[in-house]
Amino acid sequence: MLNQRYERNLPLISVKQQRALAGVIVAIVGLGGLGGYVAELCARIGIGSLIIIDGDVFTGSNLNRQRFSTEYNLDKSKAEETKRALHEINSETKITAHTVYLKDDTNIIYVQDADIVIDCLDNITGRFLIEKFCISLKIPLIHGSLSDWDCQYGFFFSERSLMKKIYSHGTATKFEQKANLPGVPPIVAAMQVNLLTLYLTESEKLKVNNLYRFNILSQELVSLDLN
C-alpha cells in the first residue's frame, strides 16, 4: 500500500517533485474549519513535515464543519487530536504540534523553521501577526478565509503587508463572522493546498500576491492583483 501511496499524484507532478515535497516544512496556523482540511490534504499529497498550531480544544459547535472534530474528542486539544489523526493517514509525515495561540512577536519561534506558512485563522489580529512573521522570515504565506457563502484565498510573497489592503472598508468585520456550513471550508482549504502545490512544484501558473474571492451562491470568482 505504501508504495502505491502517491501513484495517483503522477504525472500531474513528477517523481522528482514528489520527492521534493518530502523535504518541505509547512506550518499551518489554526486547526478549525480550514486548518483540519488543509492538514489532511498536506499529509495526503506527501508534505514531509508539518508544524500544526492551535491553542483551542474541540467543542460541540465544531462538529458541523471541522474535519477532525468528533463526539469522542470534545474538550481535547485540536493540535494533539489532529496530529493523532494525521499519523493514521500518513505515518511518513513528521508532525510537530503546538498547543498555543500566537499572540506576540516572541511566538515567531513556532514558525521559524517553516518553508511556508498557511493561514487558517478566524481572526484578523492573528493574520496580521503571522504575515509579519513571514515578512521577517522571508517566506511565503498562503491566506484563506470564509464567511457565510463567501470565500477568499491567495498566495503572498511580499516585503510589505498585503493584509492591510485586504481587510479594509468593512471587510474585516465580514470575515470574522462565525456562520459556516460544512461544505464551505473544504473548498477554501483545497484551493490553499492547490496554491501550495503550484508553489512547491514551481508552476508558472502560480499568481503571486493575487487574491481570489469566490461566492458560492452566485458562483462568481473575482481575481485581485495586490502588487
What does it look like?
The chain is globular. The chain has 7 helices and 8 strands; from the N terminus they run H-E-H-E-H-E-E-H-E-E-H-H-H-E-E. It is α/β, with parallel strands linked by helices. Helix 2 packs parallel to helix 7 (185-200). It has one domain (2-225): Rossmann fold. Strands 3-2-1-4-5-6-7-8 form an 8-stranded mixed sheet, with helices on both faces. 30% of the residues lie in helices and 20% in strands.
Keywords:
Rossmann fold; 7 helices; 8-stranded mixed beta sheet; alpha/beta; 227 residues; 8 strands
Order of helices and strands: HEHEHEEHEEHHHEE
What number is the mean pLDDT? Answer: 94
**Beta-strand content estimate:** 15-25%
Q: CATH architecture, please?
A: 3-Layer(aba) Sandwich
Task: Give the total of beta strands.
Answer: 8
Radius of gyration: 17 Å
| Apparent shape | globular
Number of spatially distinct domains: 1
Strand order of the largest sheet: 3-2-1-4-5-6-7-8
- What name does CATH use for the topology? Rossmann fold
